[in-house]
Write a structure and sequence with these properties.
The chain has 173 residues and is mainly alpha-helical. The chain has one domain (2-172). Helix content is 75%, strand content 0%. It contains 6 helices and no strands. The radius of gyration is 20 Å and the shape is elongated. The protein starts with a helix and ends with a helix.
Length: 173
């Protein structure tokens, strides 16, 4: 299992890094769109109708991508006082249970996102003209990435390699 993880870690690192860059580009694009909307509304007196739904769509993308990278880098908030008061073997068990649940949660997000996308595909987002199911793509991709990164961390904890495994993206950003 260690060799498999060593083999796939560069790909997971690249996926994580590219997700951060895409999320950053999404934040910039959303800021430009909202800025244009404010300028058009108050200066040109002609607010574009597409700006709000598009900026919300971009926001859902960078939130889900950022959340997935947060799972990989273990930077989400947590209440660790109980964990650190336990023996190391219990801490490891708590980490494994937690990461197992996060993996299942990510799988559920992706699965139900697919169901929601299928169920709303025939509807149309009025202003953008896109199929309604497109709204759930960030949920599907984000859920799959959360599951993937949580499973990676689960394996790292199980192998006892969780300390140095995920410092690469944080150092780049």
């Amino acid at each position: 299992m260690r060799k498999l993880m060593q083999a796939i870690r560069p790909s997971l690192t690249a996926l994580s890094r590219s997700s951060l860059y895409i999320a950053g580009a999404g934040i910039i694009a959303m800021t430009v769109i909202v800025g244009w909307q404010v300028f058009a509304r108050y200066v040109l007196n002609d607010s574009p109708s597409w700006s709000e739904p598009l900026s919300l769509y971009l926001m859902s993308w960078f939130i889900m991508l950022g959340a997935a990278v947060g799972v990989r880098e273990s930077v989400h908030l947590g209440l660790d006082i109980l964990r650190y008061s336990m023996p190391v073997s219990v801490q490891k068990t708590m980490d494994l249970v937690s990461l197992g649940l996060v993996t299942l949660f990510g799988i559920a997000m992706a699965y139900y996102g697919v169901l929601l996308a299928k169920g709303t595909w025939t509807a149309t987002i009025p202003v953008l003209g896109w199929p309604g199911g497109v709204d759930f793509f960030p949920l599907i991709v984000g859920g799959a990435m959360i599951a993937l990164f949580a499973a990676e961390r689960f394996i790292d904890v199980a192998l006892g390699e969780e300390i140095a495994a995920h410092t690469d993206v944080a150092e780049v950003v």
